[in-house]
Structures are given as structure tokens and as C-alpha cells.
Design goal:
By secondary structure, the chain is an all-alpha fold. Among the domains are: 90 residues, Tetratricopeptide repeat domain (Serine Threonine Protein Phosphatase 5, Tetratricopeptide repeat); 97 residues, no CATH class; 121 residues, Serine Threonine Protein Phosphatase 5, Tetratricopeptide repeat (Alpha Horseshoe), CATH 1.25.40. The protein has 23 helices and two strands. The longest helix is centred in the middle third of the chain and has 22 residues. The N terminus is likely disordered.
Length: 486
């Protein structure tokens, strides 16, 4: 909401750090995102949403313990905070505690049954449990006295410890367990083999590193970690299951390509709704997968089967582009949104064209190409009908002008956004537009006008109970008043 600059407010506001962390997370820069969220928490300790956001970063970084600590902290005052429940389940799942993860997925699903993320969590946790202990019929329990021979619910872990395995002779087949490990570890398998070779160097393993730790312990610890991850990945989806699922999916799509569903339009709408639900729930990967699968099927259908085929394909390009944006893959996202625009122009589909221009502009703005964003969004302006969309679009164009230091245009578009927000009495966009105009006026040296707009923005922040915005605006307002009295 604020431009980075001393006159407009502190760089170290909670909102700024949160926005920065979100952007870094979507770019895949999880370490930097963690630092931003930590800085935000230093300003508002215990803020639930921020704790969940940092927990997501820790999961991506493989630090499941820290992820679990943050998730539990977010649940401290409200045990029913569904985002915290989901993140706790994700952390437990990453740690390999599938049973406990399943419990929290179920708790979240009970509170928010409409969210697909909990349903998917239940499914993957249950599959992981089944993969690690097998089906109930494969487990034989023996009773001796008052105790079971093997405790129920304890997973059998078979880590691969073969530090001193015999080398294979030329032409000898690789053992099945080793082939499985190679498939699961991928590129890391060669690293594991290299570590095993290092263990055979007796002079090397006797040495110590600067911290005093033995080289042998360090190497064996790395191998043990890779073995643990191998087992974890095997439990999530064993190789045979992956091959089976892939063959099954190929068969299903083959049937779909040659024999479309009885009501293709309804089928497409149902899948599109699932795609949108997954994206809204923050599951961009699931959304992307569903969109790509549906696109593959639709491309195999004729115009006779699906009369609005081009419109559907454009919509799917839009869905794929939005999912890729959430995953931080901006170049690929831009490519799909441009294909959406091309199809919209071919079919003279104004709504689709407006959607594509909207998304292309958002990609350009996200990667800092503000002039290109402005050009695309200004092309969209004549296509906008609703007051809410006008308020948003004018504000975004104005903000891009502000980034380019073209303050007159920034103020003009901020004013247009404010008029549109006033017409629909939307407090959020009245707040955003007022701040934009105030920033532009301050840069232009119109200090008194800047004060008036900051004051209006402050009133809106109070009505909306937006404490973070209120604090930032108050500081910016003090600075504007000081300049106005000079």
C-alpha cells in the first residue's frame, strides 16, 4: 500500500514485511521469506497468519520441527484456527508422523468441510499410512498373555543402511531395493554413492572438521538422512503405486479422448470449479495438475462435442497461468495468459479478453515491469463495467505510475479509483485510493492536500479495524503534517 520511502511511512511496518514475505515465498526464495516473516513477527509477536506463513516456509526448507512450533503457536489462543490446524497437519506429515497428521486433517475438515485442502490431506495421510504398514489383511497379530506381540499403530521402518555393501560385478543386475532407492532419490542417488566411497577412505574418516566433529560421523549422518528420506518418499507413494497410477491415468485419458462424457459442458464446468477451489485454498500444484489434465482431454474433442472449445481452452490457459503465478513461475505464467488473450481475440470474446489483459498486467507488475503493466491495463479500461473492478484497476495503474515516479498520473488514477470506490461505498478501496493520492500529493509537494487524504485514509482504516494500516498511516500523516507546517 505504501511506496518504499521515508516520507510515506516506515519500511519496517508489519504489512510491508508480510507482503514482502508473500512475494518471496511465491518466488521460491524461502530463506528470505522466512526472514521477512520473522521481522513481521518481531513487530506483532504471535500474529496467527504470519506464524502460519512462516511455518509454510519452514516446511519448504525441510525444517519440519520449526514448522510445527509455529503452527502450534498459531493455535495457542484459538484451537479451532483452521489455517493453523492445516499447517500443523502439514508439518506432522513432513516429519513422517502420518497418523497424527491425519488426526489434524480430520479436525480441520470437520470445522471447514468445504475446503478441499483438508480432504486432500486426509487422502494423502491415509495413503502414506497404508503404504508404510500395508493393508489390515497383511498384518498378522499374535497375542501372548495380556499384550500384543507387535503394538498396533507403530509403523515398521526399514531404513537402507548399506555402508559396507559389496560392489556389483560388471553385468550384475542391481538389487531391487537399490533400484527403488535410485528411482526415489533421483539425482541424489549419485551423491549417496559418492558418500559411501568416502567411507572407504580410512585416512579421511579418521579426520575431524573445525567444530571437532568426526568426518566419519558427518558422512554417516548424511547417508542416514538420505535413507530416511528414501523411506519417507516410499511411504508416501511406492514405486509400484506410481507406475500403477500412471498407467491407470493414461488409460483413463485415452478413454476420455476417444469417448467424451455424456455432458461435456457440465463435466468441464465441474472440473473448472475444482480447479478454482484448489487455487483458492492455496493448493496451486493441485490446481495446475487438474487444469493440464482437462486441457489434454479438451484438445482431443471436436467442436461438435464441445461447441465453445476455444473459450474453454482460453479459460484453462488462464487457470494454468494463475497457478504458475502462485508458484512464482512468472515467464511460464505470462505465456499462458498471452495464449488466453490470443484465443479471446480470435473468438471476439470480450470478457475473456478483459480477463487475459488483467492477468498479463498482474504478471508484469509482479516482476517490476511497470510500464508494460500500465500499457496492458490501460487497454483493459474500456472493457471494465463494474465499480469494484474500476476501483481496483485505476488503483493498480496509479500505483505503477507511482513506482515510475510519474506522480501527476499516479494522483489522477488514484482520484479515479477513489471516485469509483465512493460510488460503490467500498471501504477497502476508499482506503487504498486515499493513500495513493496522499502519496502522490506528497511527492508533488502539495503537503496540505496530502494531509487531507491521509486523514481520510486513517478514518477508513479505523472503520475497517485494520490496525496495521492505521499505524502506518498515522506515522505517514505525522510526517506530512510536519512538512505542511514548514
Amino acid at each position: 500500500m505504501f511506496e518504499n520511502g521515508e516520507e510515506q511511512g516506515p519500511k519496517s511496518t508489519f504489512t510491508t514485511y508480510m507482503a514482502e514475505g508473500d512475494q518471496l515465498f511465491h518466488k521460491g526464495e524461502y530463506v528470505k521469506a522466512t526472514e521477512s516473516f520473522s521481522a513481521a513477527l518481531s513487530l506483532q509477536p504471535g500474529e496467527k497468519t504470519c506464524l502460519v506463513a512462516r511455518s509454510r516456509c519452514y516446511v519448504k526448507l525441510g525444517d519440519a520441527e520449526s514448522a510445527l512450533n509455529d503452527a502450534e503457536a498459531s493455535l495457542k489462543d484459538n484451537k479451532d484456527f483452521f489455517k493453523g490446524l492445516y499447517q500443523k497437519a502439514e508439518a506432522l506429515y513432513t516429519m513422517g508422523d502420518f497418523e497424527f497428521a491425519l488426526v489434524y486433517y480430520h479436525r480441520g475438515h470437520k470445522l471447514r468441510p468445504e475446503l478441499q485442502e483438508f480432504r486432500l490431506g486426509i487422502q494423502k495421510a491415509q495413503e502414506a499410512i497404508d503404504n508404510s504398514v500395508g493393508s489390515p489383511s497383511s498384518v498378522k497379530l499374535e497375542t501372548k498373555g495380556a499384550y500384543f506381540h507387535k503394538p498396533i499403530g507403530v509403523r515398521q521402518k526399514h531404513f537402507i543402511h548399506s555402508h559396507k555393501k559389496e560392489p556389483r560385478q560388471h553385468g550384475q543386475k542391481m538389487p531391487k531395493r537399490e533400484r527403488t532407492a535410485k528411482q526415489l532419490l533421483g539425482e541424489l542417488y549419485s551423491d549417496r554413492e559418492y558418500l559411501e566411497k568416502l567411507l572407504q577412505d580410512e585416512d579421511l574418516i579418521k579426520g575431524k572438521i573445525r567444530t571437532g566433529e568426526r568426518v566419519q560421523d558427518l558422512i554417516e549422518g548424511c547417508i542416514s538422512y538420505l535413507d530416511t528420506r528414501t523411506e519417507f518418499w516410499r511411504q508416501q507413494k511406492p514405486i509400484y503405486a506410481r507406475q500403477r497410477d500412471r498407467k491407470l491415468m493414461q488409460q483413463q485419458w485415452s478413454r476420455a479422448l476417444h469417448k467424451p462424457p455424456s455432458d461435456p459442458t457440465r463435466h468441464v464446468l465441474t472440473i473448472l470449479e475444482e480447479i478454482d477451489t484448489a487455487l483458492s485454498a492455496g493448493n496451486a500444484e493441485s490446481s495446475l495438475k487438474k487444469a493440464r489434465e482437462l486441457m489434454k482431454a479438451v484438445r482431443g474433442w471436436t467442436e461438435g462435442v464441445l461447441p465453445n472449445k476455444k473459450e474453454v481452452l482460453g479459460n484453462l490457459h488462464s487457470c494454468i497461468g494463475n497457478a504458475l503465478m502462485d508458484l512464482g513461475k512468472m515467464d511460464k505464467a505470462l505465456n499462458h495468459h498471452e495464449k488466453d488473450l490470443e484465443l479471446a481475440k480470435q473468438g471476439d470474446l470480450m470478457d475473456s479478453k478483459s480477463r487475459a489483459l488483467d492477468n498479463i498486467g498482474r504478471v508484469y507488475a509482479r516482476i517490476g515491469k511497470f510500464q508494460q503493466a500500465i500499457e496492458v491495463w490501460e487497454e483493459k479500461v474500456p472493457l471494465v463495467c463494474s465499480g469494484l473492478e474500476k476501483a481496483w484497476l485505476y488503483h493498480e495503474i496509479g500505483h505503477c505510475y507511482l513506482e515510475l515516479k510519474r506522480y501527476v498520473e499516479a494522483r489522477d488514477y488514484g482520484s479515479r479509483s477513489l471516485v469509483a470506490a465512493d460510488d460503490i461505498s467500498d471501504g477497502k478501496w476508499q482506503l487504498n485510493a486515499s493513500v495513493l493520492v496522499a502519496q502522490a500529493e506528497l511527492k508533488l509537494g502539495n503537503n496540505k492536500a496530502s494531509v487531507l487524504h491521509f486523514e481520510r485514509a486513517l478514518d477508513r482504516a479505523k472503520l475497517l479495524h485494520d490496525d496495521s494500516a492505521r499505524e502506518a498511516i498515522q506515522k505517514a500523516l505525522r510526517e506530512a503534517r510536519q512538512k505542511a507546517t514548514q
